[in-house]
Design a protein that fits this description.
The protein is α+β, with helices and mostly antiparallel strands and 83 residues long. It contains 1 helix and 5 strands. Strand 3 (28-36) and strand 4 form a beta hairpin. The mean pLDDT is 92.
Length: 83
Amino acid sequence: MNIELNTIITLENGEEYLTIDKVTKDNVDYYYIAQLNEEKNDIANNYKVVIIKKQDGKDVIEEVLGEDNLKEILPLFIDKIKE
C-alpha cells in the first residue's frame, strides 16, 4: 500500500493524521504524519513516523518506536528538506 502525501489517514484508535512526507530506506517506505486538531482545520502538536505492514492479508499502519530507530529514520526526513 502506498499513501499519497497530503491525504488524511485514520488510525485504528480513530485519530486522524495528515501525511506530510515520505522517505524510503532499505525498500521500506516511512511516512511522517501530523495529527489533525478536533476541528480538522489545523495540525495539532503531535507527529509520528509510521510504516505500512501486511498483517493477515491487510495493510496495517505501524508507528516507528524506539530511540535508535528514530535516530536512524528522522535524519532522512531532515536531509530531504535540505535538498
